[in-house]
Amino acid sequence: MLVITHSFQQKELQPLAKYYRIDDIQRAIAKIDTSGVRLPNLGYRNGYLVKLRLPHAVAGRLIAYVFIQKNYVIPIVLRLKTDKVIGENLALNNKKAKALIIKNLESAMTDIRNNRYIKY
């Protein structure tokens, strides 16, 4: 089940609304088992991180957290492939990307604890 947190909606999805919508994320999430690249879980025991491509006229990348206990897929970071801040390397060996992933993952967990999310 796709879960869009308030923080993801505000910080990640809204700035890229002219490129991506919820249904684009749903299509990417549907391919999580076949085309997702699993990343280290950064100490979160209840799930794992996965990197996905967003097939669109404008190429994008999505980092999502798969929360196994609740069967939630929670988008964490959404970036254009040509993003100037993170660049093409949206991976944990990129210090800026890793800091952003950790910060957004913490925000997402806070949103879930405070019931600030929508299920799709």
Automatic annotation (TrEMBL):
Highest taxon of source: Bacteria
Name assigned to this protein: Uncharacterized protein
